[in-house]
From TrEMBL:
Residues 286-448 form the Four-carbon acid sugar kinase nucleotide binding domain. It comes from the Bacteria. This is Four-carbon acid sugar kinase family protein. InterPro entries: 4-carb_acid_sugar_kinase_N (IPR010737), 4-carb_acid_sugar_kinase_N_sf (IPR037051), NBD_C (IPR031475), NBD_C_sf (IPR042213). SUPFAM superfamilies: YgbK-like (SSF142764). Keywords: ATP-binding, Carbohydrate metabolism, Kinase, Nucleotide-binding, Transferase. It comes from Lacisediminihabitans profunda. The lineage of its organism: Bacteria, Bacillati, Actinomycetota, Actinomycetes, Micrococcales. Residues 22-261 form the Four-carbon acid sugar kinase N-terminal domain. One of its GO terms (molecular function) is kinase activity.
Length: 466
């Protein structure tokens, strides 16, 4: 059996010896669920990105939140980030376009934008694009070029899952070659998509992976099959060998491949002992929920049953009607409630869609902005910890609500799930406050209640104050 720790060390040694940096363009803040002790940049700033990539072999996320933008806006923002990221280290930067493990997002457009911008800077297009959407801890994996999402303990071809019916990024295909053909409207013919099979990985090893990669040219898409980190780590060794042979690549991935490409070690879930800053405070926490997927609604119901919460439902129809007095009044109520209670703020659960995918996205953005305004207005109460549920919500709360520009990923509260950020550059009231980023589509019914329980348990001073 391969020594996984030795493989990860080999990956890191290669990266450091060649002074390669890894920049992850993350289309929502939940992509860091498989990593730890790396920095997150929330703004397009060459200075902030450079600070986050100081060390050779380092990894930094840049939160673009492009899943919450229209395609043209997403393309422009990707180009801005790539220009900033390559300004200092040029083609010594590997670029991951990190997106949803259930395939939602601007898949084709973002990769094409990144390749075009990169080529304008370094003088050549990439040879291949590795497509590796797995998120193992959440039960998302790829076998036989078909991508699966585990639902209620049963692996389901992702095109048959609720995620494929997304109002903005819906699709029908589960086979990743067919999926690329579907999203590109035929510009990426499925028969032209290369594949690295499980057999190639497990039987041929890094050399066989390298041989497939060496066949790629003209930004060819390459589907990566995998059911474990060991599979991805073997692929990374093949990638490194192909780079040494002169090939260049981009990566469109879910959360798991980021950890493999960086060579990061696994880390146990965070516990109460990892939040010493909470030990002496009797302040209360703030829970924000914007996601509308069914998993989130069940989790909200469970955390409400746990008790000890002041609850505020934000009325989405009123928000969309543009009532200017509604949000300041809600913020004032939340701010007052934080003096005595943990506070749950959630958007009304009825899903309001637009007449088109673009209109639905605009609605989601308007609602998310409203949640962020509530947070900004309540921040003077100095919450002890903050949880944001939903990708668009957690990004907008971080940037607009907390003024966050750069943060450190402390780790996760569950194996590979639910990251905790430590704000480094942010509004004074938010610096150092544990900020929990919780994807809408992960966890079981009790996961949100568990996260709240961990944070409450880190505050013995609250028990003494009762």
């Amino acid at each position: 059996m391969t020594d996984s720790a030795a493989v990860r060390q080999q990956i890191r040694d290669w990266r450091e010896s060649r002074s390669r940096r890894l920049v992850v363009l993350d289309d929502d803040p939940t992509g860091s669920q498989s990593v730890h002790d790396v920095q997150i940049v929330t703004v397009v700033s060459e200075a902030e990105i450079t600070r986050a990539l100081t060390d050779r072999g380092s990894t930094a996320f840049v939160l673009t939140n492009t899943r919450g933008l229209q395609e043209a806006e997403a393309i422009e923002l990707n180009k801005q980030v790539v220009t900033s990221a390559l300004a200092v280290h040029g083609d010594g930067v590997d670029i991951i376009s990190r997106s949803d493990s259930t395939l939602r997002g601007h898949v084709i457009a973002e990769i094409e934008a990144i390749d075009e911008c990169r080529a304008g800077i370094v003088g050549r297009h990439v040879d291949g694009v590795l497509f590796a959407p797995a998120f193992f801890e959440a039960g998302r994996f790829t076998v036989g070029d078909t991508h699966y999402a585990t639902v209620d303990g049963v692996p389901v071809p992702v095109g048959k899952s609720e995620f494929a019916r997304d109002a903005t990024f819906g699709y029908a295909s589960s086979n990743l070659g067919d999926f690329l053909g579907e999203l590109s409207h035929g510009r990426v013919p499925p028969e032209d998509v290369l594949s690295i099979s499980l057999e190639t990985i497990t039987e041929g090893g890094p050399d066989a992976v390298r041989d497939v990669l060496m066949r790629a040219s003209g930004a060819a898409w390459i589907v990566i099959n995998a059911t474990s980190y060991e599979h991805y780590e073997t692929v990374v060794l093949g990638v490194q060998a192909a780079i040494d042979a002169g090939r260049t690549f981009l990566f469109r991935t879910g959360p798991s491949f980021v950890r493999a490409l960086a060579g990061l070690e696994p880390k146990d879930p965070l516990s109460t002992a990892d939040f010493p800053q909470l030990g002496s405070t009797d302040a209360h926490g703030l829970i924000l929920v914007g996601s509308h997927v069914s998993q989130t609604s069940r989790q909200v119901a469970a955390v409400r049953l746990s008790g000890g919460l002041a609850e505020f439902e934000l009325n989405v129809p009123l928000i969309l009607a543009g009532d200017r007095s509604y949000i300041p009044a809600a913020a004032a109520s939340v701010r007052a409630a934080l003096a005595n209670h943990d506070v749950l703020v959630y958007t009304s659960r009825e899903v309001i869609g637009g007449e088109s995918a673009a209109a639905s996205l605009d609605i989601a953005r308007t609602v998310s902005n409203a949640v962020s305004e509530v947070v900004a207005g309540a921040l003077a109460a100095r919450p002890a910890w903050i949880i944001a549920k939903g990708g668009i919500t957690s990004h907008d709360v971080a940037v607009r609500g907390l003024g966050m520009r750069r943060a450190r990923v402390l780790g996760q509260l569950l194996p590979g799930l639910v990251s905790v950020f430590e704000p480094l550059t942010a509004s004074p009231e938010a610096r150092g406050v544990p900020y929990v980023v919780f994807a809408g589509n992960v966890g079981d019914d009790d996961t949100l209640a568990h996260v709240v329980s961990v944070l409450r348990s880190a505050q013995p001073a609250r028990e003494l104050a009762r």
